[in-house]
Amino acid sequence: MGKILKYSFYDLIRSRWSYIYFMFYLLLGFVLFFLNNDVSKAVITLMNIIIVLVPLIGTIFGVMYYYNSREFTELLLAQPIKRSSIFLGQYFGVASSLTLSLVLGLGIPFVLYGLFRSDAIFDFSLLLITGAFLTLIFTALSFNIALSNENKIKGFGYSVLLWLFMAVIYDGLFLITLILFEEYPLDTFSLVATMFNPIDLSRTLILLKLDISALLGYTGAIFKQFFGTNTGFVISILMLILWTILPIWRLVYKAKRKDF
Predict the structure, then answer these.
(1) What is the gyration radius of the CA atoms in the chain, in angstroms?
(2) Do residues 54 and 134 touch, judged by C-beta distance below 8 A?
(3) Residue numbers of the chain with a pLDDT score lower than 70
(4) Residues 102, 132: contact at Cβ < 8 Å?
(5) What is the rounded distance in angstroms from the CA atom of residue 251 to the CA atom of residue 233?
């Protein structure tokens, strides 16, 4: 698995799309500091971009890499290598290359502008951690979709639909539910509904740690009571870990039983 991971990692690092992804965050960081030399405000601005863009890139890169390397994968399957090692190696290669581009692209401008002398270092670290989690989660989900669909068009379509549902449609349905049932106690429902969407969970976690929970609107006070505590923070991180483990487990399960 390590050799396959290494190959997939270096293969993607040499890809021009990885350089574009890295340069986008690098330029974005410098532009933010050029417009406003404030680390805390830059973190807030980046949150809105990362929460939406990172899942999209992870989803597209994952499904694209799987389909483009299908012939190589079939060649590996003919060798005495475990299927779990092949697909986990490819998955971690894609996810690690995307995470590295994210961390270096944002880390370089922030370090140059005095991140280590700023009080926002923890907020920025949390931003990178949630970005890494979202990369791992949506790359794993995209691999699952690609494994379940031999047709490339369907695979890409379902992947984009998954991202669209998690990033946009889910929030709309959540808001409509809160409005329709506003007369009922929705505290528990709000917490559970947030945990069922890794994008919402990441956004909530960052907003509360930035102490701007008022931006969460109707359920801001509820989230503050729960996620604002150390226990809430730990549970939120554990939920993101669970969101990462379950798609990886299904990836291995599906790969072992798929007829290639």
Answers:
(1) 19
(2) yes
(3) 115, 210-230, 259-260
(4) yes
(5) 28
